[in-house]
Design a protein that fits this description.
CATH architecture: 6 Propeller
CATH class: Mainly Beta
Helix content: under 10%
Strand order of the largest sheet: 1-24-23-22-21
Radius of gyration: 18 Å
Order of helices and strands: EEEEEEEEEEEEEEHEEEEEEEEEEEEE
Number of strands: 27
CATH topology: Neuraminidase
Largest sheet: 5 strands, antiparallel
Bound molecules: magnesium ion
Distance between the termini: 39 Å
Structural class: mainly beta
Strand content: over 45%
CATH superfamily: TolB, C-terminal domain
C-alpha cells in the first residue's frame, strides 16, 4: 500500500518512502481543529459532536483537554501562544488565557449573533480572522439548531481595539482560511452546503500591508470532495483536506500530490520537533505523517 500519490515530480521530494501515515488516535465522532503546542509537546483537536477538545501527546497518548467545549471547531494560537477557538455552541470566538480563563473575542456583529465560527487564523499584527458559516446551527449535531441571523461572512477581529469587521461577504459558506508565508495572500475555502453543484474551491485574495483584501478568484477546486481546512508550508504550498486525503497545491494552484488517508479529512496542521509533522483530523481519527517539509513560520 502506498501512503501518497506523486502527481508532479517535486512532490516526490516532499514525502519519504519510509514515512507512513500513522493513526495516532481513533474512536471520535468528527475530528477537526488541530493545533500544535510545541512548548507542551502536544496536539489539541476538536471532537465536535462529542462536545470536547482532546489532547494528544507522543509521551502520554490521548486525554480530554476540555469538556464541554461549547462544540468547539477550529483552533489556532495567537502571537503570544494562547489558544484561540471557534465555538459552535456558544456562537463565538474565544481566547484561552495563560491562567485558563476564557476571553470572548467576538460573538455578535451589528447587534446580531454570529452563526457558528468554524475556522480561525491570527495574522502577525495580532488580528484574528475567522469564518462564520451556519453549519453549527443547521442541526443539533455539532451545536444547537438555531435561527441564522447573519450571512456567512469572514470577519477580522482586532483584540486591541475590540473592533470586528466583515471583510468577505460574498461567500456561500466560508470555511478554512490561511495566509501565505509573507501574508500578501489570504486563502479561504468555500464549502457551500455540500450539495451537488455547490462550491468545492479555495479562493485567493491579495492582502496589502494594512490587511485590505482584493481579488478573490477561484484558486483551486478540490476534487474529489470539497475544501474544508488547510495549512501552508514554508514555501507557500497549500495542504488541503479533500475526500481522498490531503492534497498538496502549489502557490500557482496546481495539484502536486496527495497524502492518502483512509477516512474523510477535515483539517490539518504542522507540528512536531521540526514542524515537519503533518497532523490530519479525519472523521473518527487523527493521523500524522512526517514530511520533508515544514509548516509556515509567521513573519
Ligand atoms: Mg472547517
Amino acid at each position: 500500500m502506498s501512503f501518497f500519490e506523486v502527481i508532479e515530480p517535486v512532490f516526490g521530494t516532499y514525502v519519504m518512502g519510509n514515512s507512513p501515515v500513522i493513526q495516532l488516535a481513533t474512536g471520535f465522532s468528527w475530528t477537526e481543529g488541530p493545533v500544535w503546542f510545541g512548548d507542551a509537546n502536544c496536539l489539541l483537536f476538536s471532537d465536535i459532536p462529542s462536545n470536547r477538545i482532546m489532547r494528544w501527546s507522543p509521551d502520554s497518548g490521548t486525554s480530554v483537554y476540555r469538556q464541554p467545549s461549547n462544540y468547539a471547531n477550529g483552533h489556532t494560537r495567537d502571537r503570544q501562544g494562547r489558544l484561540v477557538s471557534c465555538e459552535h455552541g456558544a456562537r463565538r470566538v474565544t481566547r484561552t488565557e495563560l491562567d485558563g480563563t476564557v476571553t470572548v473575542i467576538a460573538d455578535s456583529y451589528e447587534g446580531k449573533r454570529l452563526n457558528s465560527p468554524n475556522d480561525v487564523v491570527v495574522k502577525s499584527d495580532g488580528t484574528i480572522w475567522f469564518s462564520d458559516p451556519h453549519y453549527g446551527i443547521m442541526t443539533n449535531y455539532e451545536g444547537f439548531k438555531s435561527e441564522q441571523e447573519l450571512p456567512c461572512n469572514v470577519y477580522r477581529a482586532d483584540p486591541e481595539t475590540g473592533s470586528l469587521e466583515a471583510v468577505l461577504t460574498d461567500f456561500n459558506c466560508p470555511n478554512g482560511l490561511a495566509f501565505s508565508p509573507d501574508e500578501d495572500r489570504l486563502y479561504v475555502a468555500d464549502t457551500g452546503r455540500m450539495y451537488q453543484g455547490d462550491p468545492t474551491h479555495i479562493r485567493m485574495f491579495d492582502c496589502d500591508a494594512d490587511g485590505n483584501l482584493s481579488g478573490g478568484d477561484i484558486f483551486h477546486s478540490i476534487d474529489p470532495g470539497f475544501a474544508d481546512g488547510f495549512r501552508l508550508d514554508s514555501d507557500g504550498n497549500i495542504w488541503s483536506s479533500s475526500a481522498d486525503g490531503v492534497h498538496c497545491l502549489s502557490p500557482d494552484g496546481n495539484l502536486l500530490g496527495k497524502i492518502l488517508v483512509p477516512e474523510l479529512v477535515s483539517n490539518v496542521c504542522f507540528g512536531g520537533r521540526a514542524k515537519h509533522q503533518l497532523f490530519i483530523t479525519a472523521s473518527t481519527s487523527v493521523y500524522s505523517i512526517i514530511l520533508n517539509r515544514e509548516g509556515v513560520q509567521r513573519p
